[in-house]
Amino acid sequence: MNKTNNETDLDAPDDQLNRAIEELRGVLQEEEQRVGGPARDASAANPGVILNIPVDVQIVLGSAEMQVSDLMALQKGSTVALNRRIGEPVDVVVNGRRIARGEITVLENDPSRFGIRLTEIVTATKAG
C-alpha cells in the first residue's frame, strides 16, 4: 500500500499542474461569458490573444532582512545570507504571485544554464 501512495505522490505534481491549467482555462471561459458583447466576440475570434500576453516570471532563491547600515556597507565580494538553505525548494512567482515551488537543476541540453524542476504547484483559491 505504501508503494501505491509513493507512486501517487510522484504523479501528483503532473496532476496538480494539469488541474491548475484546467482551472485557468475555466476562469478564462467564465470571464469571457461574464464580459459578453464585443470583447467576447473578439476573444472568440482569436483565442490566442490571452495566451500571448507576456508575464513576469521570477525564481526566488530566498530573501534577507538587514539594517540600512549593513546594506550601505555592502561592496563587491560581500556575501548576503539568505533565509533558505541549500537544497530547499525555491519559489516560482508569476506577476508577484507564487504559483509553484521547485528545485534548481542544470539544463541537460546546456550545462552552463540553470533551470527549475517543479515539485509543487500552489493550488489556486477563488475569492468568495
From TrEMBL:
Gene Ontology cellular-component annotations: bacterial-type flagellum basal body; plasma membrane
Ranges for domain Flagellar motor switch protein FliN-like C-terminal: 50-122
GO biological process, one term: bacterial-type flagellum-dependent cell motility
Cell compartment(s), UniProt: Cell membrane; Bacterial flagellum basal body
Keyword hit for Secreted: no
InterPro entries cross-referenced by the UniProt entry: FliN, FliN-like_C, FliN/MopA/SpaO, FliN_T3SS_HrcQb, SpoA-like_sf
Keywords: Bacterial flagellum, Cell membrane, Cell projection, Chemotaxis, Cilium, Flagellar rotation, Flagellum, Membrane
A molecular function GO annotation: cytoskeletal motor activity
NCBIfam families: fliN
Function: FliN is one of three proteins (FliG, FliN, FliM) that form the rotor-mounted switch complex (C ring), located at the base of the basal body. This complex interacts with the CheY and CheZ chemotaxis proteins, in addition to contacting components of the motor that determine the direction of flagellar rotation.
Protein name as it appears in the record: Flagellar motor switch protein FliN
Organism: Mesorhizobium hungaricum
